Amino acid sequence: MRVSLSLVSSLTKYLIKNRFLSKKRFPLVLMLEVTHACNLACEGCGRIHEYKDTMRETLSIEECIRAVEESPTPVVTVTGGEPLMHPEIDKIIRGILNKKRHIYLCTNGVLLAEAIKKLKPSKYFNINVHIDGLAKTHDAIAGKGVFARATNAIRAAKQAGFKVCTNTTIYKNTSEEEIKELFSFLDELGVDGMLVSPGFSFEHNENEIFLCRKEVQEKFGFIYGISKRYKILNSPLYLKFLKGERNLKCTPWGNPTRNYLGWKSPCYLITDTHYKTFDDYMECTDWDKYQEGNDPRCKNCMMHCGFEPTVVLEGGKRLSDIIEMAKWNFS
Description:
Elements: H1 5-20, E1 29-33, H2 47-50, H3 61-70, E2 75-79, H4 89-97, E3 102-107, H5 112-115, E4 125-130, H6 135-142, H7 146-159, E5 163-170, H8 176-189, E6 193-198, H9 213-219, H10 221-226, H11 236-242, E7 257-259, E8 262-266, E9 271-275, H12 278-284, H13 287-291, H14 304-314, H15 319-330
Parallel strand pairs: 1-2, 1-7, 2-3, 3-4, 4-5, 5-6
Antiparallel strand pairs: 7-8, 8-9
């Protein structure tokens, strides 16, 4: 299976509960940015620009657990910056696991080999390592030698019994052949799944490496094709959206973000303000403005944090979609 039975069960129960309560809007994945500090300065990173004044600040263990309690999502993505730079990251992870939440720990992999000595494998715990290409490409983006350190850490984590997936960003100069070769390499490493994302130009980073919507549609046709060969974790309905075959509206509240400054509004990618509480975030944000794509910053966004929640919330409306999703998960 591409998605574990444990996660499917947790997500199904959560969806049924919220629909029974007739909730119009509810989140699916909490993005918990425990720190914005990072040991790299990757080309294309928006956080190092947006939060340059608070880069060294961190969320306390208590703040992290409170955020998990405020936003009762079945999945928590622990991210940053580089979350493994947080001095108490192991305690934060254990605290979230005690709440029976599924964790995806997003890391560049540089500190991972050492960090896993303080962590334990769990059916609720997934490590997500960012790999943007083969060694030459990845090191050009992240820094010399990072590809080798990250992939060696993946080997170590797998040998220690952890579930490991990867996340790859597709940029303007990303070639189809390199991605196929990368996925073949990652498959040989034994990774448990591969996420793919179109590069998004954060408002604080206008680098020319990013894709416009038309370029995303041109680039992602082949991803859908090879998703039957490799364990790609993006849903087939989202991949069809990326290649222009489906029309999806964004669900901007689907992946709320909590960081040192508060609850980031409106979404993980763009910022208008930060709220002190999750309830304020949900009640005070003008959701219609962003869901309809009326903000110019949304023009080229096709990121999974906004559109995969739409697939989850609407994927059961067509019988053909239900069948395709079932075949995808069990393939």
